[in-house]
Design a protein that fits this description.
Elements: H1 3-11, H2 27-35, E1 45-46, E2 49-56, H3 59-68, E3 73-77, E4 80-85, E5 99-103, E6 109-110, H4 123-126, E7 143-148, H5 154-157, E8 167-169, H6 179-190, E9 195-200, H7 204-216, E10 221-224, E11 226-227, H8 239-251, E12 254-258, E13 266-272, E14 279-282, E15 285-286, E16 288-291, E17 298-303, E18 309-310, E19 313-319, H9 322-326, E20 333-335, E21 341-342, E22 347-351, E23 358-367, E24 377-381, E25 407-412, E26 414-415, E27 418-419, E28 443-446, E29 449-451, E30 455-459, H10 462-465, H11 482-492, H12 503-512, H13 521-530, H14 566-570
Parallel strand pairs: 7-9, 7-10, 8-9, 10-12, 12-25, 25-28
Antiparallel strand pairs: 1-2, 2-4, 2-5, 3-4, 6-11, 13-14, 13-24, 14-15, 14-23, 16-23, 17-22, 17-24, 18-21, 19-20, 19-23, 26-27, 29-30
Helix pairs in contact: 7-8, 11-12
């Protein structure tokens, strides 16, 4: 940037102003309210209207106000209400008492890469020593919940790839993907006697409601081959992760999460502005080359200030090519949410498309905040991937794979019927550590398996790896002498810390270590109010800032951590 242009830029350095008439709506919703259909696509919209999440002070008061406005509540979670309404009525949301913010919903994504009776190839390596099913241990009496975003085709699979009777609680039976059905197939292959229950959700609010329903239904095990990406820190403090840990505490159920397929999709590093031109560097690199920012894909930027209290005002701009940026052309996409303190998240996002197969994303400083810029880490996430020179070494977990009490599963190779837990892990499989330094994922499972839903060898990703854990007998509290079997399996297969014979042996080793006693709900609530730590975390474990020091998020986490999950303490990391 020339000195003249830099001077003009610096003179105008100020936080982005809020819309005076619609101060609680995020920028995209403001544009939709004012321009109607001309404002462009929104994340979740159909002929009935656009789906909006309201963050409120008092949900009961807000719900009554919405009823008076003739707006129906679709779903609710602590501090959040989900509604659907036409664009021309968005401005009416400002009349809701105690409204903190109206935003678009966070959408979960399935963790698969894969677009007659078929049996998963994962069975052979899992049962390479002992097939528990031959001994009558097949999951009988165990209720397994499959929590997913879509279950196309599940009814046709009953009696063949799925049990004869499957209970389903679905929002949209034809959501456009057989992902959840494929997950259920893998579980049924490994645990044909287990009762399967299907639960569907789409948004962060519906996720909480689904967990409440699963708890009320008394499920023993939950498989969630889905996740939310880059909507908050992977340190146990995000809303989905908090919901999962609270669910586990109350219900005693086992929750198994896919670690994610995000390893090639993140650019992570400390922020800087070495040349002072307002275009920020991430890890010393100004701008990020991204791949396939197609229609419907959400590119996001998050930085490690506390959620709800961001003081640095940073925007996200996208150009069709790096040369367009260098030539001073206008960006094709912008996200310019205001940040300036209480109530503001350190988060920006844009919805594709932008140009062709490649694009160029830049973090743009709008106004400085508290502390030093170099002490803040940035997370740029693109579902289509980032250029190899930008890819992060670790810290790429999906949420809630950072759960303190849940189990997270990565993907390892399955070649010629042999499962190689020594690695290498699949390139795409998300790696830890968590942002508070814990080792994740906990386990590793086979992938690239066959299902009726996706076809031969086409179910790829941590979505396929995760179901190998809830379908393994060590998780079944009703299986005969299950703890004795777990200890026997561990003794029979001694191994180096990061090397296991099979997913079954891995799961057995973890389950042989008894879970610690959980605190009372009152103690957990008190701890949660103090810091984003595990349930009943001591005050000394609280972090005073929004994350670890800049540069502390690379590479593998510690082999053991007194803040880790039960599995993290019992086992060294797979990945």
């Amino acid at each position: 940037m020339t000195p003249l242009l830099f001077g003009l830029w610096a003179a105008g350095l100020a936080a982005a102003p809020r819309d005076q008439a619609l101060p609680h709506l995020d920028r995209v919703l403001v544009e939709a309210a004012r321009a109607g259909t001309l404002a462009g696509p929104l994340r979740l919209e159909d002929p009935s209207g656009v789906v909006v999440v309201l963050e409120v002070e008092d949900a009961a008061v807000a719900t009554r106000a919405l009823a008076e406005l003739d707006l129906r509540v679709q779903a609710a979670a602590p501090g959040r209400i989900q509604v659907q309404l036409p664009r021309h009525r968005l401005a009416a949301l400002e009349a809701v008492p105690g409204l903190r913010r109206a935003r678009q919903p966070h959408l979960a994504s399935p963790k698969s890469l894969g677009a007659g009776l078929i049996e998963s190839e994962g069975l052979e390596p899992i049962f390479n020593d002992t097939d528990w099913r031959d001994e009558g241990i097949d999951g009988k009496g165990v209720d397994v919940a499959v929590l997913d975003v879509a279950f196309d085709g599940w009814e046709a699979l009953q009696g063949t790839e799925l049990p004869r009777r499957v209970r389903a609680d679905l929002l949209d039976p034809e959501a456009g993907s057989p992902h959840g059905s494929a997950v259920a197939e893998v579980i049924h292959d490994l645990a044909p006697g287990a009762r399967l229950h299907l639960y569907q959700f789409r948004t962060d609010v519906e996720f909480d409601e689904a967990l409440a329903l699963i708890e009320a239904d008394g499920m023993d095990v939950v498989n969630a081959s889905i996740g939310f990406d880059n909507i908050g820190p992977a340190d146990g403090s995000s809303a989905p992760t908090r919901a999962v840990d609270a669910f586990i505490q109350r219900s005693g159920a086992v929750y198994v999460a896919a670690a994610g397929n995000e390893q090639d999709r993140y650019h992570i590093g400390p922020l800087s502005d070495v040349d002072g031109d307002g275009y920020l560097e991430i890890g010393g690199q100004e701008g990020t080359r991204i791949d396939d920012l197609l229609a419907g894909r959400l590119l996001s930027l998050r930085w490690t200030e506390p959620m709800g209290a961001a003081t640095w005002d940073i925007d996200l701009h996208v150009w069709t090519a790096e040369q367009d940026f260098l030539d001073g052309d206008a960006p094709c996409l912008r996200s310019e949410e205001p940040q300036g303190g209480l109530g503001d998240d350190p988060y920006e996002s844009v919805l594709g498309p932008c140009g062709g197969a490649r694009a160029f994303a830049v973090a743009v400083l709008k106004a400085p905040g508290e502390g030093r810029l170099q002490e803040i880490d940035a997370y740029l996430y693109n579902p289509g991937g980032v250029d190899a020179r930008h890819r992060a070494d670790g810290g790429t977990l999906t949420l809630p794979a950072d759960s303190f009490l849940g189990v997270s599963v990565g993907a390892c190779d399955l070649e010629q019927g042999q499962y190689t837990s020594t690695g290498p892990a699949q390139q795409y499989s998300s790696r830890g550590p968590t942002e508070d330094g814990r080792t994740k994922p906990d386990l590793c499972g086979p992938t690239g398996v066959s299902t009726d839903s996706f076809g031969e060898g086409a179910f790829e990703g941590t979505s396929a790896a995760a179901p190998t854990s809830p379908a393994s007998p060590p998780w079944w509290p009703t299986a005969p002498d299950w703890r004795a079997r777990a200890r026997a399996s561990t003794t029979a297969s001694p191994a180096a810390p990061a090397i296991w014979e099979s997913p079954a042996a891995t799961t057995a080793a973890a389950t042989a270590a008894p879970r610690p006693a959980l605190p009372t709900p009152a103690a957990a609530a008190a701890a949660a109010s103090r810091c984003p730590g595990p349930p009943a975390a001591p005050p000394s474990s609280c972090s005073s800032g929004g994350g670890p020091p800049a540069g502390a998020l690379r590479g593998a986490g510690p082999a053991d951590s007194d803040r880790g999950s039960t599995l993290g303490r019992a086992l060294a990391p797979v990945l």
